[in-house]
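Why should sequence recovery work at all? Because a backbone constrains its sequence more than one might expect. Tight turns favour small or flexible residues, buried strands favour hydrophobic ones, and helices have their own preferences. The token representation captures these environments compactly. In the example below, the structure is given first.
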């Protein structure tokens, strides 16, 4: 059987190894980009929740410190919360940098606006 011809060309040896060496880094890069994208989406969702919670608290006319604390509790770590009040509306802006993107100049920003509610028992 030493001289049997199996029909394979001996020049094809090593192609699987070479193809794997090219494909594996691409798969790792794709997986890393996918995880990075999911982290950005998760941070965006946290910013949306934080801005909405802060806007609800501000619309109820909670104290400004309490509004910021409510928003920071729902926001990603290290997020900046800005609250502005108008005559009929409150606006809460949450800006955060996702954990995996600390070195990149990329921030996630969300803004929520709510109508000011009338307080019960308040005078005109």
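From this structural description, the recovered sequence reads:
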């Amino acid at each position: 059987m030493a001289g049997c011809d199996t029909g394979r060309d001996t020049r094809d040896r090593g192609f699987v190894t070479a193809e794997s060496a090219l494909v594996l880094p691409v798969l790792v890069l794709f997986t890393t980009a996918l995880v990075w994208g999911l982290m950005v989406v998760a941070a965006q969702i946290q910013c949306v929740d934080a801005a909405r919670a802060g806007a609800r608290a501000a619309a109820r006319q909670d104290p400004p410190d309490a509004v910021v604390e409510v928003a920071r509790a729902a926001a990603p770590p290290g997020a900046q919360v800005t609250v502005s009040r108008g005559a009929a509306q409150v606006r809460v802006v949450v800006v955060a940098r996702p954990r995996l993107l600390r070195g990149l100049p990329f921030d996630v920003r969300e803004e929520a606006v709510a109508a000011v509610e009338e307080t019960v028992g308040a005078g005109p």
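A few observations help interpret the result. The two ends are 104 Å apart (CA to CA).
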